[in-house]
Amino acid sequence: MAYKKPRLAVFKMSSCDGCQLSLLDAEDELLDVLGGVELAYFPEASSKMLKGPYDIGLVEGSITTPRNVEEIRQIRKDCKILITIGSCATAGGIQALRNWKDVKEFTKIVYASPEYISTLDRSLPVSAYVHVDFELRGCPINKYQLIEVLNAFLNSRKPNVATHSVCIDCKLKENVCVMVAHGTACLGPVTQTGCNALCPSYDRGCFGCYGPMDSTNTASLAKEFKILGKTSFDVMTMFRNFNAYAEPFRKESEANEK
Amino acid sequence: MANEMKKIDKNGLGSIISALLEKGYKVIGPVLNGGAIIYDEITGVNDLPEGWGDKQEAATYRVVKRSDKALFGYVVGPHSWKKFLYPQKTKLWEAEKNNKGFDIKPSNGTAVKYAFLGVRSCELNAIQIQDRVFNNGMFADTFYNKIRKEIFTIAVNCTQAGGTCFCVSMDTGPKAKGGYDLALTEVINESGHYFILDEGSEKGREISSKVLSSEASQDEISAADKAVKNAEDNMGRKMNTDGIKEMLYNNHDHPAWALIAARCLSCANCTMVCPTCFCANVDDTTDLTGSHTERWRRWDSCFALDYSKVAGGNFRTSIKARYRQWMTHKLASWIDQFGSSGCVGCGRCISWCPVGIDITKEVELIRETAKA
Ligand code: SF4
Ligand code: SF4
């Protein structure tokens, strides 16, 4: 039997496109990836849009509209393996900031004819609606991790995507801890690695782009931030960011709301 | 025995570095970088952090300007020598697909001759502890031992203690008791700035014979001893190790573990900076075409949730279980496993814990109400 290349599809919900662009940005590996799959559906890259079913579906973006809900249910049916990519798809994204507000109010202020806007109250991750086989975190995702995930699925092995703290990567890179040595508040100790400790490598505290790591103690870190001079409001805004609606971050920001 | 002690000055130290470079060593020493004193490659005495010191407390480390020109006027920083002997990432082997199956190509590890300048007594002890872990006969680690057997060590006796140091409690310092090729004690007083040089091995004698030195007078030696005594008398921390093994074994259900866990972030910084922690993870990678595969080892930590994931589940899901595992291993079961404590009292885990969890205080917390 002739080997059939797996069919890859890339979809977008509510998002900025940055994550799917990481795939195109992976210039050195792109040909190998494309050599290993049949690119069946990727409107950002090709006008050839083939119908499902697909073997692997990559989904970027959060679910924010009734149309997104319909689409994602169909996508789930069409894809054998569904992988969500980026903070929007895995946690609701920066647009989940609306989850604490009244969206109807916004639409009234922003749009001349708000009656044409059909949107949901909350921005939620894809996994809130359908089963997801693998979630690749990050805002944006790391292209090397994306290739690793595709590579792993193509070679039928487990992706090497660590779920531990950013701190471990800082130490592997020999970074001097910005929190201990400079007094800079850093989300690294509660954030999942993935960026190779980008911000601390440039003497900045981690912003938490990859969301909560596998076991977080945000309350203890928040307490330490206050020792470093942060107010409750500061702490709230730090946790209410690209992964604001990821459970541990959401709870910590709410605990510091007043 | 009665080693003649030599005396050298800053230029003499420079000549030692040059002699080592000439012999093909890659010389590693303390340098100021990124707001801390770390270990990196040096090519001369001017690379050393002259006139810098450090201030350490739980969760805080700051470099500070000193009023003198000491070359070793600080204690240990975030790095330790383990990053050279047991690098963060090591390729164990790779394999290539062929028409019959695959060929395995072993990895040769690092073939580099390191000279370590400025190894503190606690760190020498840490290296000896890792020797027992990695050079243990049946499961000797070829990568570690290959680098280890080539190293040249220049110890520096501490003349001041850091805020989180407790080597006196662990009987690992502040004066180096062997395991070095050369040892230096830096003295700065009214009679000048000099180093007492002690030769600890034939290799050491060979290098020191190449540098200009004089015989140290009794007064100069006493001044050096007094400086080391200063470190001994000013330990920032202490730990009562009496019966510590039994105490921890008998108190695995002590309420203190939950209190510590409420603060612990499970971030793993303590284990990364600890000079004796050695846990690693092994990752297999493939290229996209599936024709080439590599197996890599990288530092991991008992604080990482995934570390205790096995087929069928995870046996240390709570932070409490992971902290307890770390401390009990370090201070108690290490003794059963390797014949000594796993802690050398360097204080790194205290300084570099972002929330200041302090192994000496946590031991006290348990001891206060420990079950016998
Ligand atoms: S003891 Fe401190 S450094 Fe270690 S895992 Fe806990 S919070 Fe992190
Ligand atoms: S447990 Fe802490 S004090 Fe002891 S050797 Fe490790 S880092 Fe140093």
How is this structure best described in words?
The complex is a heterodimer of chains A (about 260) and B (about 375). With about 260 residues, chain A is α/β, with parallel strands linked by helices. Chain A has 2 domains: about 5-155, NADH:ubiquinone oxidoreductase-like, 20kDa subunit (Rossmann fold), CATH 3.40.50.700; about 165-255, no CATH class. Helix content of chain A is about 40%, strand content about 10%. Chain A contains 12 helices and 5 strands. A 5-stranded parallel beta sheet of chain A has the order 2-1-3-4-5. The longest helix of chain A is centred in the N-terminal third of the chain and has 13 residues, at about 65-80. Chain A starts with 6 loop residues before the first strand and ends with a helix. Chain B has 13 helices and 16 strands. In chain B, helix 8 packs antiparallel against helix 11 and helix 9 (about 255-265) packs across helix 11 (about 320-340). The model of chain B has no long low-confidence stretch (mean pLDDT about 95). Chain B has helices spanning about 10-20, 80-85, 120-135, 140-150, 165-170, 200-210, 220-235, 245-250, 255-265, 270-275, 320-340, 350, 360-370, and strands spanning about 5-10, 25-35, 35-40, 50-55, 60-65, 90-95, 100-105, 115-120, 150-155, 180-190, 190-200, 215, 280-285, 290-300, 310, 315. The longest helix of chain B is centred in the C-terminal third of the chain and has 20 residues, at about 320-340. In chain B, strand 15 (about 310) and strand 16 form a beta hairpin. Classes of the chains: A alpha/beta (about 260), B alpha+beta (about 375). The interface between A and B is large, with 44 and 48 residues. One iron/sulfur cluster binds near residues 276, 344 and 349 of chain B.
